[in-house]
Design brief:
alpha/beta, Spore Coat Polysaccharide Biosynthesis Protein SpsA, Chain A, ten-stranded mixed beta sheet, two-stranded antiparallel ribbon, golgi apparatus, signal-anchor, Mannan_Polymerase_Subunit, transmembrane helix, transferase
């Protein structure tokens, strides 16, 4: 008698394999999924933290670009998948923390100050939404700074889960800085400004274009010698929902006349333009730049540093600016994505952060300042 086709293909081996597959499927379906994992230290990590947390306690690459490679059946590594990012759904709002908006803190670093890192570690914006990027000159002093930075990072990134940042990247400059000395007086000599600030522009551009990921909503530029800010710095600046906003940078010092600690303005690069400065620019050669804060080059611009109401400060008070400093500068990531960078060449006779404000304005973005909201620079 002929055997039916379906019966000819059914045997003990086939039935056994079918049973194993069915049991495996039932196990997969019925096993409850968990949104947490147990770390080697015994702490529970949420699925979001597990995805965002750094893979390395020192300097992993920017998270969105890390994609695991799969191995095919023939032993060859499969090509990386095509990843789609919908930047139209990316937000940068006045309620950044509640909206889970990611922040990228970027710092050019030539010297390491423990106070800087301690201040960053105390920022209370959810650390799982914060990535950090550094760029360090490839010099002897840079090597010293990098070693100290890595030690500080290691302590934070191996500490409690809630204190760890999503990722930290450390870049080393591939060009020589124009100044070997990082002494404050040497850095601020007028004769050194053009070369120094053009070099700083290159460093800033390298840093932002390397680390800016498709999930970044805000970029906070924070100089490595800013050692004191409110813990709510990120929330406070993003709450204004401005494309570019900068606080007032001051410095604490001992006032010999008062015999007591006092404060004084430090950053004069946040200003409102003046007819005098515009006339000076019109008379300059193409490669010349305008500088602020030097008696040899009076511009008569309105300086935000001198507009602070220290007696009755209103931290929410805003003013419109034409130039910005970079000691603490909050920028919507879309401003950088649209092409605003730090010109390493005279751009309308401006370079670095002041040139950035000019370029952003040409792209349709306005800059704002907070005269009564203070951050503090290290006092050498």
């Amino acid at each position: 008698m002929a055997v039916a086709r379906t019966m000819r293909r059914t045997g003990p081996t086939t039935l056994l394999l079918a049973t194993i597959l069915a049991l495996g499927f039932l196990f997969f379906v019925l096993t409850p999924s968990s949104s947490s994992a147990i770390t080697d230290t015994g702490s529970v990590v949420s699925s979001q933290q597990r995805e965002d947390a750094a893979d390395n306690i020192l300097s992993p690459p920017t998270k969105p670009f890390v994609k695991a490679q799969s191995v095919r059946e023939d032993g060859h590594i499969a090509p990386p998948p095509v990843i789609h990012y919908n930047l139209n759904s990316l937000t940068s709002t006045s309620d950044s923390a509640s909206m889970n908006e990611r922040v990228l803190i970027l710092t050019p670093l030539a010297r390491f100050y423990q106070g800087f890192w301690d201040n960053v570690a105390k920022l209370n914006y959810p650390h799982e939404l914060v990535s950090i990027g550094f760029i360090i000159p490839n010099t002897k002093d840079g090597n010293t700074a990098a070693a100290a930075l890595e030690e500080a990072i290691s302590k934070t990134q191996s500490g409690p889960i809630g204190s760890r940042f999503a990722s930290i990247s450390i870049l080393r400059q591939d060009f020589e800085p124009p100044l070997q000395s990082q002494d404050e007086k040497e850095r601020h000599k007028m004769t050194n400004q053009k070369e120094r600030r053009e070099s700083m522009s290159r460093a800033r551009n390298s840093l932002v274009f390397t680390t800016l990921g498709p999930s970044t909503s805000w970029v906070l530029w924070l100089d490595s010698d800013i050692v004191e800010t409110p813990n709510t710095l990120i929330q406070d600046l993003t709450s204004h929902n401005r494309p570019i906003i900068v606080p007032n940078c001051y410095q604490r010092y001992y006032n010999n006349d008062k015999k007591a600690m006092d404060t004084r303005p430090y950053d004069y690069n946040s200003w409102i333009d003046s007819p005098t400065a515009q006339a000076l620019a019109d008379s300059m050669e193409p490669d010349e730049i305008l500088l602020e804060g030097y008696a040899e080059l009076p511009t008569y611009r309105t300086l935000m540093a001198l507009l602070a109401d220290t007696a009755n400060p209103n931290p929410r008070r805003e003013i419109s600016l034409d130039g910005v400093g970079g000691t603490a500068l909050m920028v919507k990531a879309d401003v950088h994505r649209d092409g605003a960078m730090f010109p390493a060449f005279p751009f309308y006779h401006l370079v670095e952060t002041e040139g950035f404000a000019k370029m952003a304005k040409r792209l349709g973005y306005e800059a704002y300042g907070l005269p009564d909201y203070f951050v503090y620079h290290y006092n050498e």
